[in-house]
Specification:
The protein has 2 helices and 17 strands. It is mainly β. The longest helix is centred in the N-terminal third of the chain and has 24 residues. The N terminus is likely disordered. It has a 16-stranded antiparallel β-barrel.
């Protein structure tokens, strides 16, 4: 009996190590990110040149972890921080933080539920229809022409369904977190439905943001988005439309719209030629004039490997009926628009994903 007890005691460290090993085997922790920097020249009324971060894809790094809880249920977290590759600073202006994403959640056969700060369901559904990834001088400004167009929200409860024959559903609710608030006060909610089957993709999204204090006006914003793409094999075609209506309290609505078309054409074994056209119609809150702008972009990306690419992008932007007193859209605010409301720019950069 004493010999047996000694054997059991001696084996405890090995049993503990085995148990720990099993726990680690059921969990994972991943460090990931993207570093992207581009030499940039923008010409308008003056010329601006410098190094810009995220010319092809946003620069960021993050940690994500998953724990298998058994029975198909998993716990997960995701912490992601934007960075300026040209300076090493955080891209939020508040130093290094996790304002790109900070969520914790559960995932299973029901789909997944996450809590925290994240991209909205509407933006997640629609961003893939811009061949320039909403980044750099070629990226669409569809989420910038409608007042208070946030791609991400704090205090978010999000749900994403599993795929039902290629159809997925997602929805968000973000608390306003104000004193004496109801569930509607300053709250944000949206829903999106997407279809992906073979070469075909399509998405529809709807959003509402309540009681936003924007330039002194109490605004309710409602937005609707529709996007689609088809991969023909030798090239891919994308299209999208977004409308945002902003209603200041006691005033009539002002509307912002973006029409987008894009294409990506593989060239050789490692190259991709990209082109896009964006037409913007928008009216800032408090401005009586409806503004228009057109943006044409052309780019080439050469993949040195699965994770590293060289790229070049040219973009031209023209504000119609430009009025300097009102302003307009720009590729780079540091380079002033020309007297006719034009800017054009060139970026040449390197991107590495890990």
């Amino acid at each position: 009996m004493k010999t047996m007890k000694k054997k059991l005691i001696a084996s405890l460290p090995f049993l503990a190590a085995a148990a720990t090993g099993t726990a680690f085997a059921q969990s994972s922790l991943t460090l990931f990110g993207n570093v992207d920097a581009a030499a940039t020249v923008i010409d308008g009324q003056n010329t601006w040149s410098g190094l810009k971060s995220g010319g092809n894809k946003d620069s960021y790094f993050g940690l994500r972890g998953v724990e298998d809880l058994g029975g198909g249920l998993k716990a997960q977290f995701w912490l992601e921080s934007g960075i300026n590759a040209d300076s090493g600073s955080g891209d939020s202006g508040d130093g290094l933080d996790f304002k790109r994403r900070s969520t914790i959640g559960l995932k299973g056969n029901f789909g997944e539920v996450n809590l925290g700060r994240d991209e909205t369901a509407a933006y997640k559904a629609m961003k893939r229809y811009d061949v320039f990834n909403h980044s750099g001088i070629g990226g669409s400004q569809a989420w910038g022409v409608g007042n208070n167009d946030d791609k991400r929200k704090d205090n978010l409860i999000s749900y994403a369904s599993p795929s039902f024959g290629g159809v997925t559903l997602s929805a968000n609710y973000a608390f306003g977190e104000t004193n004496h608030s109801t569930w509607k006060t300053k709250a944000y909610y949206d829903a999106a439905v997407s279809y992906d089957q073979g070469p075909w993709s399509a998405s529809l999204a709807m959003e509402q943001q309540n009681n936003v204090d924007f330039t002194g006006a109490n605004i309710r914003q409602r937005a609707y988005s529709l996007g689609s793409s088809y991969d023909f094999g030798n090239f891919k075609l994308t299209g999208a439309y977004r409308q945002a209506r902003n209603t200041p309290a006691g005033l009539s609505s002002v509307k912002s719209e973006t029409y987008s078309l894009g294409t990506a054409l593989p060239v050789g074994a490692a190259g991709v030629v990209k082109a896009s056209y964006n037409h913007y119609r928008y009216q800032p809150v408090g401005v009586a004039t409806k503004l228009k702008a057109d943006q044409l972009s052309l780019g080439y990306e050469y993949n040195l490997s699965k994770r590293t690419a060289l790229y070049g992008t040219y973009s031209f932007l023209k504000n119609k009926d430009y009025n300097a007193a009102i302003g307009g859209l720009s590729l780079e605010p540091a380079a002033l628009l020309s007297d006719s409301g034009k800017q054009h720019g060139l970026q040449v950069g390197l991107r590495h994903t890990f």
